[in-house]
Amino acid sequence: MKQVTIILSIVIGLFAIVKADAQKNKDMDQFEVQVDGLGCPFCAYGLEKKFKEFKGIKNVAIDIETGDFSFSYPASKNLTMDAVVEQVKKAGYTPNLATITRANGTVETNAKETAAVEQENLMTSELYVNGKCGMCKARIEKTVSDLPGVASATWDVKTGMLTLDHDTSLTTKKAVAKAVANAGHDTATVKSDDATYDALPACCHYKRAI
Question: Which pLDDT tens digit goes with each residue over 38-52?
């Protein structure tokens, strides 16, 4: 009988802990940030260390290949989008798309609002863009997607082909090539300057044509 009582006490105690953890998770805001510049484990460590200045941060996860960074933070502290973006910059990296899912279900993002593109004006184009990894993919697609008149942009890591749907009266293929070159990625027609290429994270240093 005594053993049964002990076992019941342990079960009740574990249930109470699980319930408390579940309640804590309900009281946490969820953050997701795409970060440019995380070229190695040391970079990831530096970013995590900087964010641990936010007391109460939990569930930190960083994917070096894609630059995806996520964590949870107590909703009661109301951590703002501006504070998150600024903290990434203080760590020495470039924040791209960031999303906050609040504990109450509301979602915030720093994505820029773009004018609606008329579907009948869209044309599908392809061009080769040099790159080599998931971080290159995120950078190239964001650079192109931010151009006026671009409805979608997808870059294939294996082939290097960029496929985009765009209004050619607003953004031409030539303008796209120039934009990605300014971001550090060579195309068949426009080459990035050496300083911009050299500033890319080490994992993004693709083999350049002579």
Answer: 878 888 999 999 999
